[in-house]
Structure to design on (315 residues):
């Protein structure tokens, strides 16, 4: 088996793009899980996914899988990492629906990982877990996301794919590529009210996507190295970091997770402390200029903090 240092990043990228992750592991004679981890590190470094020839979103959306839009005045609400399971409705989700009705956003962005993909994870289960089925997760997403749509029927609804979302399509693409383009094999087939992409660019100033840099300093690194305000999810950390240089001030924002940080989706964390916060973000634009990003944060079940006030949240 090849040693880690014997395989270059270029070889990994080329192999995955030609034959997919599993095929690359065989071709490069390396461990599948180790290769997957190294791919994620390369993706974070490059700021874009490395996909195989049968990746469904590659087939359905031509490069660069980007949506561009402009907004002069109004609100954009961004949430991420809902990891919706059947029968679970979190305080953050209820608050999201409430403030969508009140703030009347022009654009609502699902920043990825609404699908958890628990049963199709590449990681081994923790014992005999009772995990939701793929259909159960799809139904839960349809129910929760329809609540969001009904709260602001005139708003644009954008879905930036996350790494967990891609499990749905990559699983089929890896094991049954002959079903490509068949109705129902793409996530967007089940959520037709949302426009799917990898990233959303607003006013050529703000980039919204699921993930880029990692680690505790990710938000600052995103703003520093992107040269633009960058809004992401993925890390569940919910924080807003300004970066100022001779070009002015831009922001790196992690919108947090809509899921409950200690929910059953995250049993793999083994009840360890986690630097995660539940909530979402609101961006306000005035005459095309982005004002300071705002966070809605869950303080305790049924209570969120927004604009210096505690708000009780209920059904």
């Amino acid at each position: 088996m090849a040693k880690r240092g014997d395989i270059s990043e270029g070889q990994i990228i080329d192999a995955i793009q030609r034959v997919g992750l599993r095929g690359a592991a065989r071709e490069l004679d390396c461990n599948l899980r180790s290769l997957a981890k190294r791919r994620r590190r390369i993706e974070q470094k490059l700021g874009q996914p490395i996909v195989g020839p049968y990746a469904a979103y590659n087939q359905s959306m031509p490069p660069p899988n980007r949506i561009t839009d402009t907004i002069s005045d109004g609100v954009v609400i961004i949430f991420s990492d809902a990891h919706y399971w059947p029968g679970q409705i979190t305080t953050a989700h209820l608050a999201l629906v409430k403030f969508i009705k009140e703030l009347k956003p022009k654009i609502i962005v699902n920043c990825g990982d609404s699908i958890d993909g628990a049963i199709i994870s590449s990681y081994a289960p923790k014992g005999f877990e009772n995990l939701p089925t793929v259909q159960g997760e799809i139904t839960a997403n349809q129910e929760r996301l329809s609540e969001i749509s009904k709260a602001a029927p005139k708003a644009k609804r954008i879905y930036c794919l996350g790494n967990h979302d891609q499990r749905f399509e990559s699983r089929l693409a890896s094991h049954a590529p002959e079903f490509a383009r068949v109705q129902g094999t793409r996530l967007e087939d089940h959520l037709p009210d949302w426009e799917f992409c990898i990233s959303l660019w607003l006013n050529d100033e703000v980039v919204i996507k699921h993930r880029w840099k990692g680690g505790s300093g990710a938000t600052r690194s995103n703003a520093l190295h992107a040269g633009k305000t960058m809004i992401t999810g993925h890390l569940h950390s919910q924080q807003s970091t300004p970066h100022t240089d001779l070009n002015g001030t831009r922001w790196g924002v992690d919108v947090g997770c809509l899921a409950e940080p200690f929910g059953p989706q995250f049993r793999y964390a083994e009840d360890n402390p986690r630097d995660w916060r539940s909530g979402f973000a609101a961006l306000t634009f005035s005459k095309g200029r982005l004002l300071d990003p705002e966070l809605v944060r869950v303080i305790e079940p049924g209570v969120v903090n927004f604009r210096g006030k505690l708000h009780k949240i209920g059904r």
Remarks:
- Residues 210 and 232 are 5 Å apart (CA to CA).
- The chain has two domains: 4-46, 62-312.
